[in-house]
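Hi F.,

I've been meaning to write this up properly since the lab meeting, where we talked about keeping a consistent format for the predictions we share between groups. The idea is simple: the sequence comes first, exactly as it goes in, then the structure tokens exactly as they come out, then a line or two of notes. No screenshots and no reformatting. I'm using this chain as the first example so we have something concrete to point to.
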Amino acid sequence: MKTLRIKVNDKVYDVTVEVLSDDDAPNGGVQNGGSKAAPKSPETVPRSPLPPAPARPAGNGNHDPNAITAPIAGTVQKVFVQAGGHVEAKAPVLLMDAMKMDTYIYAPRSGKIAKVAVSPGDAVRVGQPLFEYEEEA
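Output, unedited:
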């Protein structure tokens, strides 16, 4: 077993590898009178921690109660509401294709839709505005 230190994007990782053949060793890695050495049990090597996961927006992606934003990235397949229309809480407002899976986006509350910001075929990213509600009085 050999321990190697690898640097990827300025992050350092320590890894342990088993050498099956060593081209630099005499006799192609054969040791001790013509037989290959028996593999050793894996050693525990302290590893660098994984990088932290990116922060994900909570709720509908922002703090604007009059907006519905994309919780995931994907492609808009179908829009179920239009500007000027009323939507009930928890009603589907949009169908997205995200990682080859159909994903429905639901209205977080009831209200009148003031603006539809996307159309079928549009690619959306996380946090992108999809719809806006009319201001509540």
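Notes:
The chain has no helices and ten strands.
The chain has two domains: 1-52, 67-133.

If this format works for you, I'll send the rest the same way.

G.
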